[in-house]
Amino acid sequence: MSAWLPALLAGRMIRLGWLLPLAAAGLFALISLAPIDPVQAYVGGRTSQIGPEQRDAIAAAWGLDRPAAERFASWLGQLARGDLGQSITFNAPVMQVIAARLPASMALVGLAFALSFVLGTLLGLAAGATRGRWPDRVIRTIAVVLAASPGFWVAILLVAVFAVGLGWLPACCATPPGQLASEVTPADSLRHMVLPVATLSVVGIAPLVLHTRQSLIAFLDSPAARHLSAHGASPLRLAFGPGLRHAAGVALTLHLASAGELFGGSVLAETVFAWPGLGQATVRAATGADAPLLMGIGLATLLFVFAGNLLADIAARLADPRLRRVA
Amino acid sequence: MSGAVDPTLPLPARRRNPRRRATRHGVVALALLGAVLLAAPLLPEGALSIDRAARALPPDPAHPIGTDMLGRDIAARTLAALAKSVQVGLLAAGASTLVAVVLGLAATFGRAADHVVGVLTELALGLPHFVLLIMIAFAMGGGTTGVVVAVALTHWPRLSRIMRHEAQGIATSDYVAISRALGRSRLWVARHHLAPHLVPQIIAGFIVIFPHAILHEAGLSFIGLGIEPHLPSIGVMMSESLREIMAGHWWVAAAPGLGLMLIALAFERFGEALRQLSGPPGATT
Q: Which residues form the signal peptide (chain A) (predicted)?
């Protein structure tokens, strides 16, 4: 292996070096703009019990009485020490909230990532191999219809059919309600994951299917494929043999680069299924005016997208050695 | 091989006329849009009101798609919500197109400006789309304004790249150099050389952004950061249906989502057809 990997990593680290502070400043500015008063959001319906002095005390405890620049400086100082501040809605350190909820989200996103990759690539190959005939048309129609469907609607329909109508699968949460974590069996956990993972896997599948189809078609039109088919290889054999090798690298690159969108989709899926992950926390933080938690989630998802893009770049170079020279 | 199509054969003629295809998709999409926008104001008075006698009815002749827990007719409510979504979506997609054009053209004013726009693009693409939408909607305090601003500030990167690329290509072309040498002003060049190339791209860009705008608008309204809950909107209807779905009232969720999907689908196809008209061959998504 030549020196392309260290060079790529160094370049990306430099980019992260300027992107992260800029994004942090941008997010902080954005969240400071919000007209929602966090004290009011915290007090909520208890207005009559909490007087102005107590409000001032809450604001002072959160440091809200200081100017924005000063708050940003102290937030940055804390961040440098690995402290993201205190979440208002969960009444716990932001770091702790994210660490507690990340595994649940990662389980969903990770499984959906793998499933949609396999499904999308296979469907794309099948469509490309049968170009212009009915399997191609059916697959493309499904992909395009899914791309135009709101993700939360797909989730609700799945609940209506499989949880309410047929009663096969649970409609909510990561575990049966009312059970302790120690009582939950792995089979139970798996059953609860089926619908959310299915939702996440199919919603963003269209680009992968269409892209794989396109790159297979490009391969089938190439001299190499014509040569093989002149020797009697059928389009299906070509598609799932050399065509798969041809398309898989591109598909993986595309899929990794859009991994961040899976997290975006999981915000909606977690809301429908009451899944105790980071997506649900994002919604609660936004509706509860929990600025520290929103900042923390913003930075965490920034790193997530960054990692996805970096892995995509590495995958692209592993799949196609020609790219390594220009890196 | 039985039934195997020779991959070297050209595609069927039906799919090789992109102009007619774009026209067909365009007519469907605009007809759907026009129907929703025209029909919504024609809803009879009281069509959206609460009717205690007709709570949670399954579809029947009086209520073709049934009623919700408060006795509101789902068909009428879906239509009103679609009209609202389409209006907000048009506004948001328009604003986003404007942002894309301004930033894309600004990037052609020298290297420094190009770098600034590049950094903004990196920032806008640095977060998952929906997370950034939530952040901006939150910063605007939610509501319809929040949705419009959030969509406007998140959907511009692709079109702005096209704008930058096209504008740079034209600005450095020979005929523009000759035109300038003949004494034409920058404004004249912009009007007679730049605009005719860019306007079709801008229209196609708007059409491509629009379905994303209405889908994201619905998503934001669904989690409670979008259109105000007292107005009929698809997102709000869907979040209300969450409570009813467990009681088996599937019709409450099915119709609004289907309506939104059909409009998004029509415009997605229209945008795709337009892009194939102007874009490089083989470019998908």
A: none
